[in-house]
Amino acid sequence: MAFLLRTGQKIAASKEPRDWWQELLLSLKEPHLDLPFALLYSASEEVNETLSASSEHSSGLENWVLEGASRVPEEVATQFSALGRRGVDCSKLIPNFHNILKSNSPTLLSCTDGTFPEALARSIPVVDGQHYCDAAVFLPM
Fold first, then answer.
1. Could you tell me which of 18, 69, 76 has the C-alpha nearest to residue 41?
2. CB neighbours (10 Å) of residue 124?
């Protein structure tokens, strides 16, 4: 709860979208056992900044830019730095990407059911560098 409160306070003070991403990334850099890694994407610059990526219009959003990553190896972040028409097919990162985005709610992704690619999970070591996540949460904001 303390993490969520601190993060909320930091990002609430942001006046520009760039500041918002910076504050969120700074919060995510702090070590958290419940949040071992993060990849943060925004709709490309072609989309109006006030348009919510989780809105009813999100089905038309096809270009995503990596705003930052926390505790993700650089080669993984670089590989997935752009998604959509200008980069990696969104479904290679997360199967059913557009359907999950339209759900407008957190979605649990799991290696067990194939919604979280095992190759991606194995490329992101957690805490001690020897264990890996087998699940992730996709959270449209």
1. 69
2. 18
pTM attached to this predicted model: 0.77
CB-side neighbour CA atoms (13 Å) of 36:
19
Alpha helices in 14-95 (DSSP H): 17-29, 74-79, 90-93
Query: Using CA atoms, how far apart are residues 100 and 71, in angstroms rounded to an integer?
Result: 24
User: Would you kindly state where each structural domain of the chain is located, as residue ranges?
Assistant: 31-138
Q: What is the mean pLDDT of the chain?
A: 80
Q: Which of 86, 66, 63 has its CA nearest to residue 78? A: 66
Predicted local confidence at residue 8, as pLDDT = 87
Do residues 17 and 49 lie in contact, with contact meaning Cβ atoms separated by under 8 Å? yes
Evaluate whether 105 touches 125 at the Cβ level (below 8 Å).
no
